[in-house]
Amino acid sequence: MAGPLPVGDPAPADGRLPHDLPLDPSTDFGVYLHVPFCRVRCGYCDFNTYTSGELRGARQDEYADVLLQEVGLAREVLGEAAGSRPASTVFFGGGTPTLLPAGDLARMLTGVRDAFGIAPGAEVTVEANPDTVTQEVADELADAGVTRMSVGMQSAVPRVLAALDRTHTPSNVRTAVEAGRAAGLDVSVDLIYGAPGETLDDWRASLDAALELDPDHLSAYALIVEDGTKLARQIRRGEAPAPDDDLQADMYALADAALGDAGYDWYEVSNWSRGEAHRSRHNLAYWTGADWWGFGPGAHSHVAGLRWWNVKHPAAYAQRLAAQESPAAGRERPDEESRTLERVLLRSRIREGLAIDDLDAGARSAVAGLIADGLVVPAAALKGRIVLTLRGRLLADAVVRALTA
Question: Among 36, 156, 269, 283, which lies 20 to 30 A Cα-Cα from 289?
Answer without folding.
Answer: 36
